[in-house]
Design brief:
Helix content is about 75%, strand content about 0%. The mean pLDDT is about 90. The protein is built from 8 helices and no strands. The relative contact order is 0.15. Helix 2 runs parallel beside helix 7. It has one domain (about 25-215). It has helices at about 1-15, 25-45, 55-60, 60-85, 95-115, 130-150, 155-180, 185-215. The protein is elongated and about 80 Å long. By secondary structure, the protein is mainly α.
């Protein structure tokens, strides 16, 4: 019986090749964030330059700078949590809630800005198609995140997809506050809303695909 068992194990393992383990979630998230941010900056500039005084405002308006850096940090932390959810047992619910809380606090700045904006609202730099650009520019970072996430072993793919899409979609939404006009109502309607729509669409597609595979 032992000889038969050894032969069975040998036959099953004879064609196996060593598999290279994926990078750590932290490194993967960092590389994704840098690549995606570079892509968003590059393609946004290709469609049109940033607002003429945006860099000067970053250098001279502390609240605007803090708002931008806080948004980038919240997106980065959410991306880290997204990749950790793709590894069984690696992400805690508290960590995910902290990431979502940071994003909510960042977005709350624009709600506060309706009364007390970080910058004087202006039409300067207005892009005619910022809504559709935010939608389109989120697709490549979201696709890359999903491909990288598949290298792990996501037990809850719909959950991970939602976080991947959220982090990816918020990148162009954030950069639009440099590339487009700064006016809180415009930001919420034309930059944040399309980012949320991308998140909802990606999550819905993942949910539908999961149900289809279970049939």
């Amino acid at each position: 019986m032992s000889a038969d068992t050894d032969k069975l194990i040998a036959s099953l393992s004879s064609g196996l090749a060593p598999v290279r383990p994926p990078m750590r979630a932290e490194i993967t998230a960092l590389l994704w964030l840098l690549a995606s941010a570079g892509f968003v900056i590059g393609i946004t500039y290709w469609f049109g330059p940033i607002r003429a005084n945006a860099l000067h405002q970053l250098a001279t308006q502390p609240r605007f700078l803090l708002e931008t850096l806080f948004g980038f940090g919240a997106i980065g932390f959410t991306a880290l949590m997204a990749f950790r959810t793709a590894i069984p047992g690696a992400a805690s619910r508290m960590g995910v809630l902290i990431g979502l809380g940071l994003l909510a606090l960042w977005l709350a700045n624009y709600a506060v800005g309706l009364v007390y904006p970080a910058l004087e609202p202006s039409m300067l730099g207005k892009r005619d198609h910022c809504f559709s650009e935010t939608l389109m520019f989120a697709l490549a970072p979201a696709g890359l995140a999903l491909l990288l996430g598949r290298r792990f072993y996501p037990l809850r793919p719909v959950y991970s997809t939602a976080l991947f899409c959220l982090a990816a979609a918020m990148l162009p939404a954030l950069y639009m506050q440099l590339a487009c006009m700064y006016e809180p109502a415009h930001i919420l309607q034309m930059h944040i809303l399309p980012a949320l729509l991308v998140t909802l669409a990606g999550t819905a597609c993942a949910w539908g695909w999961a149900r289809f595979k279970r049939r």
